[in-house]
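Before any further analysis, we paired sequence with structure tokens, yielding the entry below:
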Amino acid sequence: MTPPSIPWRPLSQPRFLIGICHFPEQEPREHLASDAALMAEAGIETVRMGEFAWSVLEPEEGRYDFSLFDEAIAELAGQGIDTIFCTPTATPPRWLTHRHPDMLRVDQNGVAQRHGSRQHVDITHPLFREHSRRITRALADHYRSNPHVIGWQTDNELNTHFSESHSAVAQDAFRGWLVARYGNIDALNAAWGTVFWNRQYDDFAQVETPVTNRPASADPSHLLDYRRFLADMTRDFQSEQVAILRAANPAWFVFHNIGRLNDIDLRDFGTGLDFLGTDLYPGLRDEFMKVGLGYAQAMQLDSFRGWAGNFIVPELQLGAGAHPAFAIPAPEPGELGRFAFSSVARGADGLIWFRWTSARYGAEAYWMGALDHDRVPRRRYAELKQTISELKAVRDEVLGTSVDIDVAILGADWTNEIAQATFSLGLPSLAELALPLHHHCYLRNIRCGFAAPGDDLSRVKIAFVPHLALWDDRWTAPLSRFVGAGGILVIGARTATRTANNHVATETPPGPLAELCGVRVSEFGRLPALGASSILSGAVFQVENVKSGRMAESARREQFVDFGGEPVQAAHGYEILEPAEGVEVLARWNARFLAGEPAVTRRRLGAGSVIYVGTYLTHPLVARLFEPLFAETGVRPPMALPAGVELTTRSGPETILTFLQNTTDEARTVETPDGAIDLPPFGSTILRARAGHAGK
């Protein structure tokens, strides 16, 4: 049987993990037994520990002391609780960095990082890699036969704070990576286009890591390769640990907890792991918080699932959190459960809360856990206990199922994300450019998620290519088959316009997609920012027009496309399209020199269609363009719901689980085919049905 494509891939583990993060080294030793008993009473089955404890485990080089963790693991086991251990390499000990200061990362200003925080050591440094392998091997050997250690997390949130290094060691490693990639300096010069600005190199020894604004922009091709190098180094650093752990005990599962995707090619990075995890603190996602806490969680989990398939949440927000410069609010009564069930609804096959005790010192001194600072279990502990009880009632049904999506955003391609960042033209990230479509679907409970252009889309009805400038020719044929079988493919502006080296392609856009789309692009350019003065006309677009998508009588029309007399707001840029014979023009530009030029086209192919959009999405454009496509393909929410109630489905071979989540602080009543259901503030429920096969 062919395994499902990554976005629909369940975890292979037979157990839904229910756990909590704990730091025995930060607590008085006499509390080990009482902590274990309270955890068991709450229903905790697994504890994750050890990620910041290198100095405790190895107080000085070569002298190990595992006694504290041995005792903690034994106390937990006595209460029926297993342990997930972490390799402690995110915070190397001071005796190591003091002895070898050249291990410290160096920023683009040439300043070395300092001991006293985390992720301060350069993972390209050969000696640090040796120490990383050594502490990992010591831990693996020590716990290889301990039946209560069931799995491992590598490091902790790799690259979350800082991913670059410009140290002498990193420079040498980068040059070695370039030699392996290009073989000779002439090939590198061609790949980077170094003839521009007279940047040619005579030898690999002359190449340095790229630094922007010294004094002008760094070369985008150089930057892209540097980011590829950092991603490869991060993967290799982890792979060394994974190999040691697997050799010690092949029965262990191994995963990593992703914080933010800084210089990590997630699909490549995850190939050696059993599964991946994403740490979830909805209040930290500033880029999505402006449209609501529920949406912040949904966007993070839906996009992550497109990269990783089903996942676990190794750190799930349990209480208020703070660092010295910011604080995020505490989940309100009921939200702890909603965070949990919304995570499961969107692909989590395991939950581990952060953290057991509230931190009392350090940069997270006000990060609240299940127990308050005085160690008294109050509201959060009670809600955690209740949530775990509810989870245990459904977890066996969840395993083996995957999240259904009808609309796929084909943005899970790391090279394109990085290429966009290195030469953005002032545009947002690919995820933000896709946000209007995802948010539109979220608000209407239309099942939408993320995938890669090369994934099997047989379970999807509509797919959107969000401006992928670097095109892999291997993607074209599968997308053609998707359309021929009845799928609707929507392609965004500037797709397939650069080469693999981040050069602008010389073939008329959209290059290898021109035949599939039935269009060629004869001109492109930027549009004025929303609400700002127009470069073309000096007109100012008012906020109320931005919200409605309609233009004021006094406004010029550079940002609007016209669907048969209905002007709809566009954004960021324009393309003038030249449709081939038989290709339908859905919308034309409504502007001075653009007036009447094709802006959106449709080519019917087989049982499906290819729609090319010569601009970028806005909420009004999504509504005008996609709503007819939803009606045409039968994409609709499974039931009508009141505002603020999310609906998500997970399907397996025999079962469909429908998750209903009240994301508001007011009660909601949902009318279902079997009667009315009252959802309390932040309440959840699951409906069950039989299914012939997954995804339908």
Observations:
- Confidence is low (pLDDT under 50) at residues 532-557.
- The chain has two domains: 6-163+249-396, 415-424+452-632.
